[in-house]
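To whoever picks this up:

The nightly regression suite flagged Scavenger receptor class B, member 2a as changed. Nothing in the input moved, so I suspect the structure step. Input below, exactly as stored in the fixture:
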Amino acid sequence: MTRRSCAIYATGIVCAHLLILGIALLVAQVFQTMIQERLKKEITLAKNSRVLEGWINPPPPVYMQYFFFNVTNPDEFLAGKEKPKVTQMGPYTYREYRPRENVTFLENGTKIFATNPKSFVFLRNMSVGDPEVDRVITVNIPLIAIMNELNSYSFFLRTGVSMLMGSMGIEVFMNRTVHEVLWGFKDPLLSKVHSMKPEVEEYFGLMYNKNGTHEGEFVFHTGEKNYMDYGKIDTWNGISQMNWWSSNQSNMINGTDGSVFHTFLSRKELLYIFAADLCRSIHLGYVSDTEVKGIPAFRFAPPSDVLAPPDENPSNAGFCVPAGDCLGKGVLKVSVCRQGAPIVVSFPHFYQADERYIKAIEGMNPNEEEHETYLDINPTTGVPIRACKRAQLNVILKRVSGFPKTRFLNETIFPIMYVNETATIDDDSAAQMRTLLLIVTVVSNFPVIIVGLGAILLVILIFLVCRNRQRKNEVKRIDFTEAFHSFATTKDETAYTQVSNQAEDSPENRTNQPLRNGSYIAMSPVEAQKC
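Regenerated output under the current build:
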């Protein structure tokens, strides 16, 4: 066997083995399963793991931006002459720190307890002004809360309280600094109530007592039993189900807190997040593929049916409290879990809300780019790499009998301010994730690489076989040509003997004899050989 034949046979054997092995691995998904199991173990929370450290102290910086709506025509609005006009003020930006504390593993590491206190530091260079100097005219929420509380009392009591507020110079709208509205001030009306009911707080602020405090005690699943449960909330403040909504489904605590999700996300699934500030769980649906710092991601966002009325989304009927008392599309009344003023939440500028709420306030300009909430999540690891949480705080203004200053008011959902909470993966973490994803891609695609090598060798094998046949044909052609030339040469050199039965007697006879066959070759006379 020639060396060329050995090479062909060796290439064929290696090619066949690679193709069979690669196709078998692809069908069995051995490497995909192996890498999935490995990732599940690596990313699942475990004691002393680097993942746990990143979960306790998230490296990406989180920024909280506050935007306020300044009322430019409060008197005209209260007189019923004009609809309210507002201008947006902001952002007033704060760096948010949110480490997890009191971290304790429970039930053999299958669950983990933690609190998540948040603290805020003002960033002047990322803000439009100084919150301690800039002033905003907005709804007097303490007044609205007291009026709402007295709505079930007698008309005479409400009238007396109204006269007291008039004597104190308390109006439906207040003029305060941004810092006061946000972080708190001593309210004269609340102070008066506090003197009669000490349990009533005399300070008011939208973020009062929320700098350095947490939203509750959480118990999370670690995913030890099932990786699909990774990060899901088991209990919040000791309860696994709330009790202030009007249906069991609405009272369920579903999903994670939004900071982590299970690995290998699908575009078809819905992601659930429990928002403690909304007192409910919401779901997010797949929107599009995107990329952040070279990392592939799926964008998930709340669909329009999240805050849809029951006639559009029957599962939202439980959020109407009391049952049947529902608001329109795009708004949610949360005063059932936030005692006091009739607070309503929505997306900024009533994005995705009923058109009547947008038209009721001059200055609303909803758009997707600035007002949509979304999460960009790497589907392989389940880690959010960019997040924008946007929510607007509103209060219901309406006519209250016994308070003359509200006599011209029609029920209006009035915007106070909205927040834009953002976070993007830092460069170091992004570089680590890109490396991890590269390894995952190479390993999980190893069977494809094997099949590819087998295909390349198959092409080489076909080339070698064809080349070998071509060479054999050439050799045969050369051998045939050489044989033909050899035969022709032999004919040239062959002398034919004169065919005759008579012997040659003498030279004379040879001379006089006629020429016979074989006497001349190529027109040259040749002496005939003797027998």
